[in-house]
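ERR on first pass: missing label on line 2. Operator R.T. fixed the label and resubmitted. Corrected input:
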Amino acid sequence: MGEIKLMKGNEALAEAMIRAGCDAYFGYPITPQSEVLEYLSKDATQRTGMVVLQAESEVAAINMIYGAAGCGRRVMTTSSSPGISLMQEGLSYIASAELPCVLANVVRGGPGLGTIQPSQADYFQSVKGGGHGDYRLIVLAPSSVQEMVDFVRLSFDLAEKYRNPVMILTDGAIGQMMEKVELFDQMPRKTEFPDWATTGKPKDKERRYITSLHIQPEKMEEINKHLQAKYKQIEKDEVRYEAFNLDDAEYVLTGYGLGARICRKAMDILREKGYKVGLVRPITLFPFPKKVYEEVANRVKGILDVEMNAGQMVEDVKLSVCGKTRVEYYGRMGGMIPSPEEIVENFEKLFIKGEA
Amino acid sequence: MSNNIETAKFRPEICVDENLVYRKPSTLLPEPFHYCPGCGHSTVHKIFMEVVEEMGIENDIIGVAPVGCSVFAYHYMGVDMQQAAHGRACAVATGIKRVQPDKYVFSYQGDGDLAAIGTGETIHAANRGENILVIFINNGIYGMTSGQMAPTTLEGMVSTTSPHGRDVKTQGYPLKMSELIAPLPGVAYVTRQSVHKPANVRKAKKALRQALEYQKQGLGFCLVEIVSNCPSNWRMTPAQANQYIDEKMLAFYKLGDIKVPEVK
Amino acid sequence: MAKALGEIIIDIEKCKGCALCIDACPEEVLSLTNKINKKGYQYIVTVNSNCTGCANCAIICPDAVITVYRKIEKSA
Ligand SMILES: Cc1ncc(C[n+]2csc(CCOP(=O)(O)OP(=O)(O)O)c2C)c(N)n1
Ligand code: SF4
Ligand code: SF4
Ligand code: SF4
Ligand SMILES: [Mg+2]
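pass 2 clean. output:
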């Protein structure tokens, strides 16, 4: 058993970063994730020697990440929606140059400066690319403080395994909530770095360079094909999701992160009311757990997708079920959180009363 | 290498190792420069690689290439390099240096890259006293994108976006980045050099070496500005362009050290 | 009096004919030919044997085309 502590989501994420042997963190303050930089500023450097630097902007932060990741180091940044928007050019470069790194987006309501209240409105930005060009992030959606911890380590592993940026897509509520967590033990920082890393030209080998520039379209297409093949592999091997009560389910609720937590309560209420309702919670948003939806689509009467946005993941659910079952959406926007009762009410309105 | 003497008598007996005065540095890769004939980018690449060779640090230095004509610097400089997004070279260099403080780190940037889109990253890296060398190629124009006005374009200078000459009333004044950065306490060394005459090339090379020596001593941010040419977009021959540097550019961008570290 | 005898080797395929070395040479050793190299540039040649090996041409040459040798000949 690891150390058990009562921790705030953002602080737990920061603690996990230190324990995962992270070499460098570059970030810029923005609510609701500033606790990460504040927590690291206390004693992370004293504890492991990791670099903690407050950058002058998110643009600078993501490019510092590029530089340090290009040296083969474990690097991470965090921000919230407007800051993540500023990072998109850098992320596109990182994805193209295939640099491993981890980001967390503690999402707040938008668009624009929006609100500091929790939201899931950055789903499209996270899973469909976000910046320019055909690229993907691996996207993990924690729904508890424990997962804020566990997914940091998992993200570093996936980033390094696939040489790809990994996004932890969370929200202001999970970032701010206090929960009991079990922490993993301190891992050593890396002392060996991959061959491609720019650590100074090796004596008897050619110099290395990190770039995303390939002027010849033939070459650039080759790079694209390579990236797409990698994403296919990720879709094959890295799908993660959680499912409840699917065995006898006639209906399925689905949501991720905080939305999934609320759906679980709604499911319990609905079950008490006698409806056979299951739940699918995608953990990886890219790769999206298409198969589980495809499978339940053949035997349920409908799926209710619940999100804290105007309905974004619902498009992926619809693509997965391919019209084989009815898919409805219910959600709140702009920092509002749907209650379990609202979900129950809308479930009944959409599926039960509509059915009658 | 080919001997090409056509009208003069070639004296091979002189061409022996012990008489060697100048050869291309071994740190420069075989790939020929893609730069236009007479372009100062080539000259600066060459002398910087001479410095790296002379200091014997090719295994201990990591460079950052910008977006601009010198985007492919990594095809020529035989050291580990990263290619940065437009303007972000100082942030990328910060990332590299922070995780490898024992290595030499440099960025190589044009005036659009460093003094327009990347002004923020440059000033903040300088202000943090990042222990890096920034090589700043000021050719008063956006070379790569075919000759638009840069922040450094001289008053009255013609570019594709100031076809009637830069009008400072509406288009702003030419920006002296070196003078702007020098007063910051994190900055160790700022100098302005040029490569338009052999004597200037020699001085510019010395300045680059000096900056790396300061980096070794951990003194902080060093900026070596090099006033350079862009014969193609200035629409001049290389000789005319270098004359323009002598007469016009250097009248505004004065050569010499702007800040040197205090001797302890 | 010591006399400096210089000689240069020109990597003509790398020469871009920018002519900066011509102006830099104090001894007027260099000139462009009418021929062109594989890249399509007129290239530089020596036109006399007055070279002193001062290396100005090599130093100004952007493309690192020129290698310079210098021999000091001591005369009585
Ligand atoms: C974000 C972004 N904006 C614009 C460009 C287009 N762009 C490429 S190079 C350049 C200007 C380069 O000028 P400078 O830095 O002076 O370099 P030079 O080519 O003169 O050496 C611009 C605007 C880009 N690549 N990326
Ligand atoms: S466009 Fe100008 S700066 Fe670019 S290579 Fe040509 S001469 Fe040099
Ligand atoms: S070494 Fe000096 S003298 Fe000889 S060709 Fe070059 S510039 Fe002229
Ligand atoms: S300076 Fe170099 S490239 Fe230019 S003409 Fe002379 S040898 Fe050729
Ligand atoms: Mg320029």
